[in-house]
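HUMAN: Spend a minute on the protein record below and explain its fold to me.
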Amino acid sequence: MHISQSSKVDIASRCINRSELKLTEFGFGSAPIGNFRFNISDKDAYGAMSAAWEGGCRYFDTSPFYGYGRSELRVGQFLRERIDESYVLSTKIGRWMRPLRASDNISNLRKGGLPFIPNFDPSYDGTMRSLEQSFLRLGLNHIDIVFIHDIDSFSHGSDAVAEPLFELAMTGAYRALTELRRSGEIKAIGAGINETSWCRRFVEAGEFDCMMLAGQYSLLEHSQETLDLFDLCRTKNVGLLLAGVFNSGLLASGSKSGASFHYKPTPQKILDRVEKIEMICQLHQVSLNAAAVQFVLAEQLVKSAVLGSTCESESLSNLSAYRSNIPSQFWTDLKNEGLIPNHVPTGLDPR
């Protein structure tokens, strides 16, 4: 595949201080190419990764859960062709896979995945088993960052269900990952979480290098709870990687698209806010997705905005959002309209 010269862009890197790993500010999130949302061909998945790579992206994130192994297979195949290149790869633990049997109840399985049953198991042995399977699917001999995945009420339905899993993760998965970090088999450890409160639990409980937080800090989401988490992360020298910066599509496609918000129908008050942001975008000729990407990167604690895509054109759109020039008056207008708190960092200073 040929990527035009005009699409290429130098992407800055930020350091995770504990590990000295450098991540490109633009990261490739491979959840969509697991095929949970809809079927994506190998060609389109490869095109999405190639466009990101040619644009300068050198951080790739995956998980056994994405497509029950499909995402790791695709990411591994892509990166094996670049074995002599420098990149950072992260995956997650918490689920190991076994082959689907004819007698299995598949009513709770997500459609589009490979024929495997995910077993949620953040124990010590479950962590080692999950990671061994990941190495085999990826076909690579190194993984840089490993996250404990999906221990929160969003994933399990309630805090009461998540609590014993958290305890098991800290006595099991955390012990396994710290041993692997100490031996040099992996370089950094963290947790991949969908809720601020549970992310805070992990930051407080252990010596982690970084956290991946999905959907909780964006142009639409910047609660005081999340800002307090940021202060804690600064105190403990924990870097943040942000996924879901488009809030499940709304900040990528706009208020008229019918896109969801946190994977649910968008409340009217949120639509009203997006429409106000869009008016200011139009005034300054700024795209909504560019504002969304560059807003989160204005926070220096954020080491990478991890953006998913399903094809070449989506990756190119994400790259365009990253590199767009946004005038400082745009951010001033958002703050003057009360759409962003005055104390929240933005791109008022040129990047």
